[in-house]
Write a structure and sequence with these properties.
Elements lengths: L1 E2 L10 E5 L11 H7 L6 E8 L5 E3 L6 H4 L10 H5 L19 H8 L4 E6 L3 H6 L1 H15 L9 E5 L2 H10 L4 E5 L6 H8 L7 E5 L5 H9 L3 E5 L4 H9 L4 E4 L2 H8 L7 E2 L2
Parallel strand pairs: 2-3, 2-10, 3-5, 5-6, 6-7, 7-8, 8-9, 9-10
Antiparallel strand pairs: 1-11, 3-4
Length: about 270
C-alpha cells in the first residue's frame, strides 16, 4: 500500500507521529517509525542533524547525552563513530542494538508509505560556522537523489530558522516548506511578521502558544496551520477548536483512537 499522489480529499486534521511512536520506542529510529505505521496515521515527523563527515543523521537533542551520556554533538563524530553507539538501549533494554538512524535509511523505509515532515535542526552557532548551510545543502542533495520515490505533495521541510527554509527553497522549490514558530513569547509576533509567506506552505506552532490570533494570521496569509505536541484530550480539543490542519503527537496510537479510526481513507494502490 502507498499514498496516492492525487488523493486531495483526505480528512483533516492530519495525525502526525512526532518523532515516530516515541511513547512506544526510541524516538527518531526505524523501530519508532514502524510502530507509528501500525496505526492509521497521516504522516511522520523526524529531526535531521549532520555528522562530522556530512551524513544526515536523525536525532533531536543538542548533545548525545540521551544516547551515549556524552556532551558531544552529532556534528562532532563521524558516521562510523556514531554507528558504534546503541541508539535504543537508552530507552529500554528491549531496544538494545537499534542501529544508527540516517535520513537515507528513513527514506528507503518510509518513502511512499506516508507523509514525511523533515525538520532541519540548527543553532545560531551553526550559521556562524557554516554548518547550517552545509546541513541544508546535504538534506536537499539526499532528497534529490531519492526524488523518484518521493511525491512533492507528501514531503515537507520544517525549520525554526527562516534562513534554512529560504536556502532550501532556493535549492528545491518543489518541496513544501513549514516554519516552526519559536515557542517563546513575545518573539512570536515578530517571527510571524518576518516570515516569507510566499515560499511557505504552513506554519507550525506549539499547542501551548497557539492562539486564535495566530490561527487567523495563518488563514489570512492562506497558509496551513500545524501544531505540536498534542498528547492529551485538552490539547487536541484546543487544536480542533482553532481549526488546525495537522496535529503532531508523541502518542500516535492514542491520537488515532481519540480522533477516530479513519484507516484506509488516505491510502490506495500506487
Amino acid at each position: 500500500m502507498s499514498l496516492s499522489p492525487n488523493n486531495a480529499t483526505h480528512p483533516k486534521p492530519w495525525r502526525i507521529a512526532h518523532r515516530g511512536a516515541r511513547d512506544e520506542a526510541p524516538e527518531n529510529t526505524l523501530t519508532a517509525f514502524e510502530r507509528a505505521l501500525d496505526y492509521p496515521i497521516d504522516g511522520i515527523e523526524l529531526d535531521i542533524q549532520m555528522s562530522a563527515d556530512q551524513v544526515p543523521i536523525l536525532y533531536h537533542d543538542a548533545t548525545l547525552w540521551r544516547v551515549a551520556r556524552r556532551r558531544l554533538r552529532v556534528a562532532d563524530l563521524t558516521r562510523a563513530q556514531l554507528a558504534r553507539l546503541d541508539w535504543g538501549a537508552w530507552y529500554h533494554r528491549n531496544f538494545s542494538g537499534e542501529p544508527l538512524p540516517t535520513l537515507v535509511g528513513a527514506l528507503e523505509r518510509l518513502a511512499g508509505r506516508t507523509r514525511l515532515m523533515l525538520e532541519i535542526k540548527t543553532t545560531t552557532a551553526d550559521h556562524a560556522s557554516g554548518h547550517a548551510t552545509q546541513l541544508t545543502r546535504r538534506v536537499i542533495e539526499v532528497l534529490t537523489e531519492a526524488g523518484h520515490t518521493l511525491y512533492p505533495e507528501h514531503l515537507f521541510i520544517l525549520a525554526f530558522d527562516l534562513r534554512v527554509l529560504q536556502q532550501a527553497h532556493q535549492l528545491a522549490p518543489h518541496w513544501q516548506y513549514v516554519f516552526n514558530v519559536p515557542p517563546r513569547q513575545p518573539a512570536l509576533a515578530n517571527a510571524l511578521a518576518a516570515a516569507p509567506t510566499e515560499l511557505l506552505h504552513a506554519i507550525c506552532a506549539p499547542i501551548g502558544k497557539l492562539t486564535a490570533t495566530t490561527a487567523q494570521w495563518a488563514r489570512e496569509h492562506r497558509l496551513g496551520l500545524f501544531t505540536y505536541t498534542c498528547n492529551g484530550p485538552r490539547q487536541v480539543r484546543k487544536a480542533l477548536r482553532l481549526g488546525v490542519d495537522a496535529v503532531m503527537s508523541d502518542r500516535p496510537g492514542w491520537l488515532t483512537r481519540h480522533l477516530g479510526n479513519r484507516e484506509g481513507t488516505l491510502q490506495s494502490e500506487r
